[in-house]
Design a protein that fits this description.
The complex is a heterodimer. In chain A, 21% of the residues lie in helices and 39% in strands. Chain A is an alpha+beta fold. In chain A, strands 1, 2, 3, 4, 5, 6 and 7 form a seven-stranded mixed sheet that branches. A six-stranded mixed sheet of chain A has the order 19-18-15-8-24-21. In chain A, strands 11-10-9-14-23-22 form a six-stranded mixed sheet, with helices on one face. In chain B, strands 9, 10, 11, 12, 13, 14, 17, 18, 20 and 21 form a ten-stranded mixed sheet that branches. The termini of chain B are far apart. Classes of the chains: A alpha+beta, B alpha+beta. At the A-B interface, strand 1, strand 2, strand 3, helix 2 and helix 3 of A face strand 1, strand 2, strand 3, helix 2 and helix 4 of B. Strand 2 of chain A pairs parallel with strand 3 of chain B, so a sheet runs across the interface.
């Protein structure tokens, strides 16, 4: 391995010995993963640094299969004794419930033996805390409200560099280093007794330079402007059947929720039935959208929050086509689900920390761009609405019907974007949403998010995105 | 095994030499979890966590760091350089004199099960071998934590926990779900949860499946749903939510009638039944039970010393080093018996479980939530039809919803699961049309 970011007191041989020990104890498969995350965070409230400091999370995860039963154990120490203790716990736990388990196996794969790192221009760990504070203060102070009063602005920064060293009993050995930088914000504004919020996130994998490259300042200004428009000029939302243009921010969210999650094979098999729920892909196949809809989930998008080249089972990453010209295509697999369905894993196994088992996750989910401009989408609409961003959203556990409520939105009349409206509700069945898309723009844009899944909850950074799209004849309100 | 208090004191001693103020929290947690899906065990997990959190203040600058105990030297080393580069925080208030006391609530039987890693018992409690289509999770754990502050707090908390949830499917679209949480290995809680989940699914199977019309209804929320929605009300009572523009209670003053007289919500760190049991907060202040909404009247925000200084008032023992937090919650019981809830509802809709509550506007409390598992149409005081929860949505505003709380049951359940993070004792809750909630078809 080339990176050798090993923490003091860690010997990579210990992981190999841990895997061997698991096999000696009767495991048919074993993996051990040193998983470290380190970084700094700081929070600004109304231009004041209310607090900040570092985080360091690290430990070793061990996962084994014994008699078809899956066992997992972790330890926040990486000395040999603690790691071997975790091996014994994992084996014991798996063996004890083999009678009641679902006979787990791992799909046969060509596993990676590799090391890689995301190269950055400005290393977060070499950037002084002072520079981080100053940069964020400058951004925060530059926000100038219009007529609406900006009552509160919270800006929370964090960088998180993730180092993993994984060894599997069937030959996988992967070491990786992925730094990430992200900012979460929430602004509250008011105007003539009316109040509203807008939250958002900016981030990706890379160095501190990302905040400039991804346009943090511009995003905050844009969202402050949204509050201004909604509060000072937003009229009552329209109701009825009409054409709708949806922004990349909402398209990305819709894909994540109504295509990405239901395409997770573990969900299709019911493994998340008591948590995140089930999937329409248990019983719906074939066409779900119009021919202009192609959806991809791709861990290899450079700079993305969900970037990786090998998953946490050492399987090489590649783009996954979830919808191909309107037809449901691949599911997202780890080696467990791939074995059940008799296919190959497409490298979707990820764990959020050393405390988590690798489960099926999205990376960057997006819609392939078309060839329309935004103006061309609008030109084709006599009466409709444009949803520029959202606050409220949710979806049922089968992922059959989603709801998005726009904050900044505009009426469209006679092919032109007209006056603003506020709190436009689009509640729409998944199949309707994708079937009614008749035009896709070329302006692909990505947004970061924190995806939640698993028990215990494993929050993971992802990207989601798309271009503007046009939907024909949908119910609004 | 390391001694959390010894570790906290050792680290504090080093920090106190260099900084005006410091606090160290060390927690050592042993936990065991069985997760099941569709009638079989999907994974058996165990953790040994040794976490350390560090708080330092110097010249009003606030430094907080979290890590694992074996790595704590890193964050201590970083402190000297980082703390100088922070700004004096407008939230800063000196650490308070300690007023809390140590506590211990450990069920020996539970402790033994954690030590022996009794996975078979956990699987049995989930009903994995019942032959039913069961999914869920059950977990037991021992939390040993300690707090040492430069103001002299030397406090320990040792608490055992038993929690889980079970979901039973009778048909593809027909399910019931229930959860439990306790400091004792009270197997009856899991048994009740299983019976409730199976009962809800079974009731749905026995009734005609009929879609719901859209509109305002009288709504009956199970303890699962009531606790999910009222946890958002409690979060809005945290002073940090007010300061960051995320609370619909911002602007409410003590004495304001914000809810119906039937509703009393209490922050209950002292409740020894629930796994959030604590007698001190992260600042060493005595944790106390506080009815922040009492008989519909808003009494107080929940504070740590920092938010109390900024907004006026005093700490309620809910710290949090930066912002206050919740430990446990309790919704005070009403007069109804559980057997009478349908009769009291008369006509309306019974929502047994929900998830994905999201807000359009935190400041106004406007939201929608998605029911899951079976929901029921109730007419003439009895359920007459079932609709799978995912086929409807409930939308409205927390602000008006709590004004429409009409009745609550005497019986309460201890709820904590994926969608309810704070252990909560909750009754069934009836919300009248005055609550302004609407049911929409999905």
């Amino acid at each position: 391995m080339a990176l050798s970011w090993y923490p003091e007191g860690f010997d990579p041989l210990d992981l190999r010995q841990a895997v061997e020990k698991a096999l000696e104890l009767g495991a048919s498969y074993a993996e051990a993963r040193l998983h470290i995350k380190f970084g700094e965070g700081l929070s600004l409230l109304n231009d004041n640094v209310i607090g900040g400091g570092p985080r360091f999370s690290g430990g070793v995860a061990v996962r084994v299969i014994v008699d078809g039963s899956l066992g997992f154990a972790s330890t926040s120490s990486w000395d040999k004794g603690s790691v071997l203790d975790a091996v014994e716990r994992a084996v014991k736990s798996a063996r004890s419930l083999a009678r009641l388990s679902g006979k787990v196996t791992m799909s046969e794969e060509r596993l990676g033996r590799a090391s890689y790192e995301v190269k950055v221009r400005v290393k977060p760990w070499d950037t002084s805390f002072e520079d981080k504070v100053n940069f964020l203060l400058e951004v925060s102070k530059s926000l100038e409200p219009g007529k609406a009063s900006l009552d509160s602005k919270l800006i929370a920064y964090r960088d998180d560099t993730e180092y993993k060293y994984l060894v599997t009993s069937d030959g996988g050995e992967v070491e990786s280093l992925v730094p990430r930088v992200e900012v979460f914000y929430n602004m509250a504004a008011s105007y003539e007794g009316s109040r509203a919020n807008k939250w958002g996130e900016v981030g990706g994998s890379g160095g501190f330079e990302l905040l400039d490259e991804l346009g943090l300042k511009g995003r905050l200004e844009e969202d402050l402007q949204s509050l201004e428009v909604a509060l000072t000029r937003g009229e009552k939302p329209p109701k009825g059947v009409m054409d709708v243009v949806i922004s990349p921010e909402i398209v990305g969210l819709a894909l994540h929720e109504s295509i990405g999650h239901p395409s997770e094979a573990d969900r299709v098999l019911g493994r998340e039935a008591a948590q995140a729920g089930r999937s329409y892909r248990e019983y719906i196949g074939g066409r779900i959208g119009s021919e202009v809809v192609t959806v991809i989930d791709d861990p290899t998008v450079p700079g993305s929050s969900g970037f990786y080249l090998y998953d946490d089972e050492a399987v090489p990453a590649r783009p996954r086509i979830l919808i191909d010209k309107g037809l449901l295509a691949e599911l997202l697999h780890n080696r467990e689900t791939a074995a059940v369905m008799g296919v190959r894993s497409n490298a979707a196994a990820r764990a959020s920390s050393f405390r988590g088992e690798p489960i099926v996750r999205m990376a960057t989910t997006y819609m392939a761009p078309g060839d329309y401009t935004f103006d061309e989408l609008v030109e084709g609409i006599q009466e409709g609405v444009y949803l520029k961003n959202y606050m409220e959203w949710n979806i049922d556990e089968w992922r059959l019907t989603a709801r998005y409520v726009g904050l900044e939105a505009y009426l469209i009349k006679g092919g032109k974007v007209e006056r603003p409206v506020r709190n436009v509700v689009l509640q729409i069945p998944t199949q309707d949403f994708y079937s009614r898309i008749d035009a896709v723009a070329k302006d692909l844009r990505f947004y970061p998010g924190l995806c939640g899944k698993g028990e215990p909850m494993q929050p993971l950074p992802v990207w989601m995105g798309g271009p503007h799209v046009r939907l024909r004849g949908v119910r609004v309100g | 095994m390391r001694d959390p208090l010894g570790e906290a004191e050792r680290l504090l001693e080093r920090l106190s030499k260099k900084f005006d103020e410091a606090a160290v929290k060390v927690s050592i947690v042993d936990s065991v979890m069985v997760k099941a899906s569709r009638g079989s065990v999907s994974v058996v997990q165990s953790w040994r966590d040794e976490d350390a959190d560090v708080y330092i203040a110097k010249g009003g600058r606030i430094y907080v760091a979290s890590t694992q105990l074996p790595s704590v030297e890193r964050v201590i080393k970083a402190a000297e350089t980082i703390v100088e580069r922070l700004q004096p925080s407008k939230l800063y208030a000196p650490l308070p004199e300690p007023s809390g006391e140590s506590c211990m609530k450990v069920d020996p039987q539970l402790e033994k099960s954690v030590e022996e890693r009794d996975y078979a018992k956990l699987a049995a409690l989930l009903g994995v071998d019942s032959g039913l289509d069961v999914s869920g999770m059950t977990m037991i754990y021992i939390v040993r934590e300690a707090l040492a502050t430069s103001k002299g707090a030397r406090l320990s908390r040792t608490v055992s926990g038993f929690e889980g949830y079970v979901r039973v499917f009778k048909e593809r679209e027909v399910s019931g779900q229930w959860s439990w949480a306790s400091t004792s290995l009270d197997e009856g809680l899991a048994k009740t949860a299983f019976e409730k989940a199976e009962g809800i699914a079974g009731e749905c199977v026995s009734l005609p499946r009929e879609p719901l019309g859209e509109g305002s209804y009288r709504l009956l929320f199970s303890p699962m749903t009531a606790s999910q929605l009222l946890e958002y009300v409690a979060s809005s009572a945290l002073a940090g939510s007010v300061i960051t523009g995320s609370s619909f209670l911002a602007g409410s003053k003590p004495g304001d009638a914000v809810a119906s007289e039937a509703l009393t919500i209490v922050s209950t760190p002292r409740d020894q039944d629930l796994p959030g049991y604590a007698t001190f907060d992260d600042e060493g202040v005595a944790a106390r039970d506080i009815a922040f909404i009492d008989g519909g009247v808003f009494k107080t925000l929940l504070h740590n010393t920092k938010t109390a200084k900024v907004l006026g008032g005093e700490s309620t023992g809910n710290g949090g080093w930066i912002f206050p937090r919740l430990f446990n919650l309790e919704v005070k019981p009403g007069d109804l018996s559980e057997d009478e809830v349908f009769e009291a509802l008369g006509s309306g809709v019974y929502i047994t479980n929900n998830w994905y509550t999201r807000f359009q506007n935190f400041l106004e409390g406007t939201f929608s939530t998605v029911p899951r598992d079976a929901a029921f149409t109730v007419k003439g005081g009895r359920p007459v039809a079932c609709v799978p929860g995912f086929k409807i949505r409930v939308e409205g505003s927390l602000k008006t919803m709590i004004k429409g709380v009409e009745a609550l049951t005497r019986e309460r359940y201890r709820i904590k699961w994926w969608e309810v993070e704070t252990p909560t004792k909750s009754p069934y809750m009836i919300v009248s049309e005055n609550g302004g909630l609407r049911v929409r078809r999905a």
